Give the backbone structure.
Amino acid sequence: MKMKTSWLRLFVMLMPIFAIGSAEAARLKDVVDIEGVRDNPLTGFGLVVGLSGTGDSSAVFTNQSLRVMLERLGISMEEASRMANVASVMVTATMPPFARQGSRLDVTLSSVGDAKSLQGGTLIMTPLKGADGRVYAVAQGGVVLGGSFAAGANQTQQKNHPTVARIADGAIIEREIPFALNRENALQLSLKNPDFTTANRVVSSINEMLGGTQATALDSGTVQLVVPPNYQGKMVALISRMENLQVEPDQPARVVVNERTGTIVMGENVRVSTVALAHGNLSIKVTENPAVSQPGPLSSGETAVVPNTDVQMQEAEARIIQMNQGVTLGDLVRNLNKIGVTPRDLITILQSIKAAGALQAELEIL
């Protein structure tokens, strides 16, 4: 029983920490995103060469890509045969906001063929395109792995993922994304977790700082800010002041349950109406003790296995507790801890309380 309740006891011990953390305010930069100030994913298809026989063995597109690349270099070749030293990869990178031409990006390479490992390879010049199909960066360089692969005649050894690699500063930005921040007359602030109360608190904090009514909430997830005249052309100074404002985000009462892992996360605003709860365990133990029946000497009988099954059933006494209306998360967990429930039991209990209409919170099952 001690092992079964250890998880819930730890949860109860950490509850004061959760309560302290939820009461603290957060910086505005951690609550909202500024529309237009965002990352942009880039993707490209390339070839990694110089592998030691661990490249693609039967990928047709690898041979086609290699032939096209060589033809661009003025080398004509017939249909390529097996190229074990070449591998096709997808190259991905993230272009940060306001990235300028000549800046460098980290790139990630992922094999798309049947290559065994990218260790020791070199990525050939690969254009990286954005969602609009335009080239924004070019990647090239020696790859670095976080894993390894070795193979012999009858045995192979692999550590981590040798078919995924990275190149630090492996891409150079060739095209900038046009966005003139200082020319903007208004900003759109998008809440990372939309909530009407949080949006109203953001508006109040910004207007208090600026001493006016420049900020208004359009909905639960968007706050619009009209740039004051004294900050025209000084957007960096305005955003720098705003993003350090303290805002206390609000959150709905929600219980998130992952049945696959037995993980349960509950917000502090969870309330339970008056409800009676009974909990009991049924334990069934089946033991197989087969016996061997052996005939006597010089007899014509055969040795046989005689099954011997022992079934034991034990049901723990059901315990009933009553939780009064308006109990908090701490009361709920402490009462469930008293009857010795496990995380798996707690998932079933929460679903039953929700079905009875006594759980005043959203129940999200992952």
User: Anything to note?
Assistant: Residues 1-23 have pLDDT under 50 and may be disordered. The longest helix spans residues 2-23. The longest strand covers residues 40-49.
